[in-house]
Amino acid sequence: MALMECHFFSEALGMSTSMNVILPQQTRSQIGLEGKSSTDKHPVLFLLHGLSDDHTIWLRRTSIERYVASLGLAVVMPNVNRSYYQDMAYGLAYWTFISEELPALARSFFPLAEEREKTFAAGLSMGGYGAMRLGLSHPEQFGAAASLSGALDAVRVARERLSPAESSAIFGPLDEVAGSSRDLLHLLQGVEASEGPKPKLYQCCGTEDFLYQDNQRFREAAQGTGLDYTYEEHPGIHNWDYWDFTIQQVLKWLPLERKE
Q1: What is the pLDDT of residues 122-131, one digit of tens each?
Q2: With contact defined as beta carbons under 8 Å apart, do 253 and 70 qualify?
Q3: At the top level of CATH, which class does the domain 2-250 belong to?
Q4: For the whole model, what pTM was predicted?
């Protein structure tokens, strides 16, 4: 695998920002690891961080580089600070950045596939919300989306999980979140009713996680649709032991072409 830290300017944010990128590399003599690649453009996973982290965290807390080596899968890990993947009411346009600008820029920098069937999103906690929002808002671009211990209830996050000042800066008026494009339950209904492509969805959460009940609400709504939806739960709390385990389950679940 090749690992790069990429610093670049974002027009959407109006400033420079960073992402870490893992690219497949075909290797045979590397001790302890056999990398796989192809001459085609690489399928890509946009892997999103949580509220208190940044673009470096997946590499620092898991073995994500080792886990994807045999899959021929590129991984793009961007930085969105504490934005909750929103175009903030009083702040920067992180949703525009993550949903529109970043995929286009990443593909201009690296040989990444453009087909939706080879484009995926996943994330933990706040990033689980971001990944699900990408899949549900842009099913024409993302073939699959996965949430690990996701903070999936934006209404509850805005009202209870953040301080009033931060919530106001990110979401603006609280009574405008429910039923909007920021509300995943609303997006689920829209995708189900649409005649366009529909993403595969994966959700997992630890049974002792403080977000467990929020995840159950999303689970009930998702299971009431006709979407290709997978739910798993395991003993666990909101920590990296759980996410290091479950990101491996996500990689097994992704609809990749797996060549022996």
Answers
A1: 999 999 999 9
A2: no
A3: alpha beta
A4: 0.96
